[in-house]
Specification:
With 346 residues, this protein is mainly alpha-helical. 70% of the residues lie in helices and 1% in strands. It has helices at residues 4-29, 34-59, 68-93, 97-104, 107-117, 128-149, 169-196, 200-222, 235-262, 264-268, 273-284, 292-317, and strands at residues 154-156, 290-291. It has a two-stranded antiparallel ribbon with strand order 1-2. The longest helix is centred in the middle third of the chain and has 28 residues, at 169-196. The two termini are 23 Å apart.
């Protein structure tokens, strides 16, 4: 029963992520600007997270003070996250939730490459684990090119229940690949911050606040029509509330709990499940046509993804990674995350 609860939690996380993409896409097809959606949704996230973080901050005596350097790191984290989010919204407008979730599987590959650059991972091609991670990275990127550049014949055709705008598949694919890269960079920055300030909820509160400010400035520049800022009681208001409360605040809190209980390796295994869920929602409810290129490319990405994960699991079995999924510190490695549990700080 204890192992089933994290499984159920991660299944809910995947559903919250994919359903958030679907609702956001429908709202943008009805005229809601992605800039305004980002501003309002993260504003709601900040409001939702503020009370619990305020109580936590006053009860904790072990956290370091909030210095200017730390706040600058939070701002940078927000800037990278805001850029990735806007790239994701733009890519979603030109594609589908299926392509979006397929591209999310590039995050382990991009994270592995960035971790090598910042010396948070080591590469020893004599070891099978390093070989698996390297090959898996290349295969994942190749699969992304298949999804983006090869559409292929339709496999399943359905009549749309909701309005879907004309897709620009290649542009959407590259925008979503850029989002995955930004998300990987965000993870690297977050890992660096966690070593100095291991309080996840407070980090995300500041992250949500800075994203709200940054996306608000961009929205003011891009959306000069004041009528675009008014939310009518329709799918646009639903999208803002859903993204702010469910996709951002609730999903992150549940994901953090699952991460604490099982470690990042277990959590990351659920990323390919989002491709299956998105396919089902796209075909059954939104009337999207399922193309052969999407199936083949998603399968290649998932194979590469599990190659990277197999390499990480082999390192963990060999004792190079702790049971919680973090790299063990050594004279040759800089840990990706500080080698300690975060229970006392979450």
């Amino acid at each position: 029963m204890a192992s089933f609860v994290p499984f159920l939690g991660m299944a809910i996380v995947v559903l919250a992520e994919v359903s958030g993409m679907i609702v956001s896409k429908q709202a943008m097809s009805k005229g809601l600007s992605e800039f305004i959606l980002a501003f309002y949704s993260y504003g709601f996230s900040t409001i939702v997270l503020l009370p619990s973080c305020f109580i936590f901050f006053h009860r904790s005596d072990e956290l370091p003070s909030l210095s200017f350097s730390l706040l600058s790191s939070f701002f940078l984290l927000g800037l990278v996250g805001c850029s990735g989010m806007l790239l994701g919204y733009a890519g979603l407008q030109y594609s589908s939730a299926t392509l979006n979730t397929a591209m999310l599987n590039l995050k382990p590959a991009f994270t592995f490459i960035l971790a090598l650059i910042f010396r948070m991972e080591k590469l020893n091609l004599r070891k099978s684990s390093s070989q698996a991670k390297s090959v898996g990275t290349v295969v994942s990127i190749a699969g992304a090119f298949v999804v983006t550049l090869y559409q292929g014949p339709p496999v399943i055709k359905t009549k749309p229940f909701l309005f879907i705008s004309q897709s620009h598949w290649i542009l959407g694919g590259f925008l979503l690949a850029a989002e995955s890269f930004a998300a990987s960079l965000w993870f690297i920055i977050q890992a660096s911050i966690l070593k100095k300030y291991p309080a996840v909820l407070i980090i995300i509160l500041f992250y949500s606040f800075f994203v709200t400010v940054e996306s608000g400035i961009i929205a003011l520049i891009m959306e000069k029509d004041l009528s675009a800022w008014r939310l009518q009681p329709d799918i646009r208001l639903v999208a803002v509330l859903y993204a702010g409360i469910i996709r951002n605040a609730f999903r992150f809190c549940l994901l953090t709990w699952c991460l604490k209980e099982t470690g990042p390796l277990y959590v990351s295994m659920f990323e390919p499940l989002s491709v299956v869920v998105a396919d089902l929602i796209d075909v059954l409810f939104l009337g999207q046509t399922l193309y052969l290129g999407s199936l083949v490319g998603a399968a290649v990405i998932i194979i590469g993804f599990y190659g990277v994960m197999w390499g990480k699991a082999k390192e963990q079995k060999a004792g190079e990674i702790s049971e919680e999924g973090y790299l063990e510190p050594s004279s040759e490695n800089v840990p990706l995350l500080q080698n300690r549990r975060l229970e006392d700080h979450i």
